[in-house]
Amino acid sequence: MEKKPGVVWQDLLRNSLLTILVILIFTRTAASATGLSFDFYAASCPSAEFVVKNAVRSASFSDSTIPGKLLRLLFHDCMVEGCDASVLLEGNATERSDPANRSVGGFSVISSAKTVLEILCPQTVSCADILALAARDAIELAGGPSLGIPTGRRDGRVSSALNVRPNMVDTSFTMDEMINLFSSKGLSLDDLVTLSGAHTIGQAHCSAFSGRFRADSTGNLTLIDASLDGTYAAELARRCSAGASTASVTVNNDPETSAVFDNQYYRNLLASRGLFQSDSVLFNDERTKSQVQDFANNQDSFFQSWGQSFLKLSSIGVKMGGEGEVRKLCSETN
Predict the structure, then answer these.
(1) pTM (2 decimals)?
(2) By the 8 A CB rule, do 72 and 198 touch?
């Protein structure tokens, strides 16, 4: 029997409330395990989250690529040395100087928020917390779930380019390589599939996926990676050939809804339109295929998992107390 419209809306509301409740219970339990707290700045800097959100909103208004950049910046920080803002430090041989981080953006947003917070609450709010909050706000601004995340991270004093490559997922990684790396960070197979959904927003340089096909001077295309849709590959080849080199041209990670944080990424995988090889393997591997299908068919399921996995990501290797510091400038240690 078909449900009445009112009953359908009641079911949707009930499911949404249950999703929010599950996320809240999980995040508060996980927060206590890391030593972070949801009211860390309640007394010392009550306007901290407002200032960060305002910086993200202002920057995104003039540059629609900001949300994707901030989310990627958090990934590149937390996977190396933990979530300690070490990727923000400038200088020779720092993480930021490594080629893998030269295309990373969003630094000015963090700097802008830090400048205001240093006026309102001098040496109180860490750059690591600003970065985590900014990425959280970027997701919500792009249409993703609204999340509460704990704070209290300290800024790291160590940043080495030598630590970047061994701790970063390469777009050509196999499933086993990704599983091993995520596992070393305390992230599960479910987290791997969920956090890969970050590719629903943002952009990538052609050099990151150009090895999946080959196009000659006359435009004839040869697929090197058969898991990539031929029509999509031809479109990518056309766009990439328009630039001086594959390293200088960018395309949207998601060819359908590039500015919206939704579950379109997983629908793309079902259609063999994952941009990277590391995307395509998620649907082609039996260990992750069913989760990809679930997220493609149910955005609420993706959002619920995102809330849990994002908390785990933003809590990797956090530094507390004397383990770190609160920098005056995010680009240099005190």
Answers:
(1) 0.87
(2) yes
